[in-house]
Amino acid sequence: MIRYTDDIAEVDEGMLHGFFVGWPQPPSAGQHLAVLRGSFRSVVAIDGTAARVVGFVNMISDGVLTASIPWLEVLPGHQGKGIGTELMRRVLEGTESFYSVDLLCDAPLQPYYARFGMASVPGATLRHPAALRGRAVRGDGRPTG
Description:
This protein has 145 residues and is of the alpha+beta class. It has a single domain, classed as Gcn5-related N-acetyltransferase (GNAT) (Aminopeptidase, 3-Layer(aba) Sandwich). It has three helices and five strands; from the N terminus they run E-H-E-E-E-H-E-H. The chain has helices at residues 29-38, 83-92, 110-114; strands spanning 2-5, 41-47, 52-61, 66-74, 100-102. A five-stranded mixed beta sheet has the order 1-2-3-4-5, sandwiched between helices. Strand 3 (52-61) and strand 4 form a beta hairpin. It is globular, with a radius of gyration of 16 Å.
């Protein structure tokens, strides 16, 4: 039985394993939990029989006009069951007053997000891989200290 909640206080690090498949350096469970707790909105899918998170989505926002969805992920063994669709439906609920809700993804995933009314637009990103290893970096990408 899958249960959805936006009460991240229910989640602990032990429930957050197996995510970030294919990442060169996945965030730690502690970093993952901090992201979920620090986001404007987060929704998780919990497998009640295994007491673990099997999917999550988070949104960051100014709370007025703009929001961004940086992460949506469902564990490989739970994909294709509508969990990602339900997570997206829940995180987008109530965002009609925002001017924009942005999401960056690879081109093959754009048709998936089009189902939620999202349009393909040009974008840009700046990534600092060292941040995933817990090292602080300056604006120019060099480690601090």
